[in-house]
Amino acid sequence: MLKLLLSAAALTVAMEGTAVAQERIRISSDWGEVIADLADNEAANALARMLPLTIEMSDHLRQEKTGNLPATLPEQSRQRDFSAGTIGLWSSDHFVIYYRNGRVPSPGIIVLGKATGGLSIFDRPGPVTVRIERSD
């Protein structure tokens, strides 16, 4: 009986996990494009409602591109570690795309999602203009 209950619970969790569609965005520039899956939090949902966006971004510490959003996003829990492809929020309107792994000082970043693909397009010195829009 216990085995049957555990199997049913595992199946329920698996079905619920696939029922939630994850929002995807495209981040593009003259250098190329990447696709990102947005996190399941209110800040990422607020970002999705702003789309499409064009943001002027600068290189920071040879690990990330940063730029300002047109409006603030809601506060969420933060983390200090990030990996290449993490998209996040440093302050309430400061958008970040990390193209290297690393760690930030306190209070950390709000994770908005994770980009995949050719992140090396951002691994260049200097500014870049990016377009962020929903992906099909």
Written description of the protein model:
There is one protein chain. Strand 1 and strand 2 form a beta hairpin. The protein starts with a helix and ends with a strand. The protein has 136 residues and is α+β, with helices and mostly antiparallel strands. It has an 8-stranded antiparallel β-barrel with strand order 1-2-9-6-7-4-3-10. The chain has a two-stranded antiparallel ribbon with strand order 5-8. It is globular. It is built from 2 helices and 10 strands; from the N terminus they run H-E-E-H-E-E-E-E-E-E-E-E. The longest helix is centred in the N-terminal third of the chain and has 18 residues, at 2-19.
Mean pLDDT score: 87
What's the N-to-C terminus distance?
Answer: 44 Å
Helix content: 10-25%
The gyration radius over C-alpha positions equals 17 Å
How would a crystallographer describe the biggest sheet? 8 strands, antiparallel, barrel
Structural class, from helix and strand content? alpha+beta
